[in-house]
Amino acid sequence: MEAPTNFDIDYIKTCAFAARHNYIEDMENQLISFEKKLQAKNFKVYWASTEDDLVEMVYQILPGKMNTKVCFDLPTVPEGFNSSRIKKVSIADVENQRIRPHILFTQADFGIVETGTLAFYDKKSKNCFNSAPSIYVLLDISKLVSKATDLELILYLRSYYQNRKFLPQDLKLLNAPFQMINENISQDGEKVTRTPVEITVFLYDNGVTNILQDNFLRSALYCIDCGQCKTVCPAYQYTNDYTPIGLVRANCFEAHRQSGHLSSHAVLCGNCDQVCPVQIPFTDLLIKELELCKPPKKGLLALGKTFERRKKLNKMSGGFYRHFFTRRIYGKNKMLLSYFRKQKETFYNITRLQETANNEQ
């Protein structure tokens, strides 16, 4: 469905920001309510703090001791699942009904607290929910919304930015355990039998509660996975490594800050600030993370102080001054220095580009 001509994107972005802010600020109470509603519907619920916890819990509840057939539809399958206890089955084999797995392991995009509902957006396994007697669902505890109307706003934004559509092409809502249809002839002569599908939900922390403890860094949890930040990030386009939100989330933890990724994967141009529909202050977050490095690294702190006044960089129109600035800041970072040298435009971020375009009209 195409976006209508009267589609007020700015209004929807404002409402989506409010929805994410309200959930994150009241996450503890919302999660307790969500868990109770899932359990009332006969969902099984487990809490997993880390990837190791998740793997251990899954092994504890696996129905078989050896060769349990599992179809994974996860962004990244934890290495802990490389075991003789699990026989991995491809989604293609399940879709084509060549193999019927014991478990379909997928990830929900969002949960709705108000109704205890799981939402799945354009999943590879969209046609496989009726193919396994057990479904394991992984859900990041930051990926919940208070009400169904909040989810509508977020889905509108994601669809709009990803393919300029008003609604997602495929959306599944899982409200309660359901019956799996088996196309076999039963003893009483019926051609179709139904068996209950067991739904197990893993509420996955993965560092979220640690981020939540910082009143400023918690804004990194507002993300709706629209992908806008990476499309405008010069560092990501050149390194193809950390997206802006990935870099921010990783460097909420001190171990990552000390790795030096902040200086090699960010130019703090402010592009991501400009395009984020839920107003995540990427540049300010990265600058704070630079300042939190202990012991302080001279190069990182100097970079942070420089870009606190990043408008200076945006206003540099002379080629000589730009060359001097980039050489001084990125001289040791050959990849990003090469990126800036290849630029033919005289701007460094979206604001500068817009100002230039307005002046030329």
Overview of this structure, please?
The protein has 361 residues and is an alpha/beta fold. It has two domains: 200 residues, 3-Layer(aba) Sandwich (Rossmann fold); 134 residues, no CATH class. Helix content is 43%, strand content 16%. Helix 9 packs parallel to helix 13, helix 13 runs antiparallel to helix 14 and helix 16 packs antiparallel against helix 17. The chain is globular and about 80 Å long.
Summarize the structure.
The chain is α/β, with parallel strands linked by helices. The chain has helices at 9-25, 27-40, 51-61, 91-95, 148-163, 208-212, 228-231, 234-239, 244-250, 254-257, 261-264, 271-275, 282-291, 298-307, 311-314, 319-330, 334-342, 350-360, and strands spanning 44-48, 68-73, 86-89, 103-107, 110-112, 117-121, 134-140, 144-145, 171-174, 179-182, 193-196, 198-204. A hairpin with a 4-residue loop joins β5 (110-112) and β6 (117-121).
The biggest sheet amounts to: 6 strands, parallel
Number of domains: 2
Q: How far apart, in Å, are the first and last alpha carbons?
A: 34 Å
Instruction: Note the overall shape.
Output: globular
Derived structural class: alpha/beta
> CATH first level of the largest domain: which class?
Alpha Beta
One letter per element, helices H and strands E, the order comes to HHEHEEHEEEEEHEEEEHHHHHHHHHHHHH
Number of strands: 12
Strand content: 15-25%
Write out the CATH superfamily name of the largest domain: NagB/RpiA/CoA transferase-like
Number of helices: 18
> Strand order within the widest sheet?
1-12-7-4-2-3
| Helicity range | 40-55%
Q: Report mean pLDDT, rounded to a whole number.
A: 82
Give unreliable regions as ranges.
none
Q: What is the CATH T-level topology of the largest domain?
A: Rossmann fold
Would you identify the CATH architecture of the largest domain? Answer: 3-Layer(aba) Sandwich
Q: Write down the Rg.
A: 24 Å
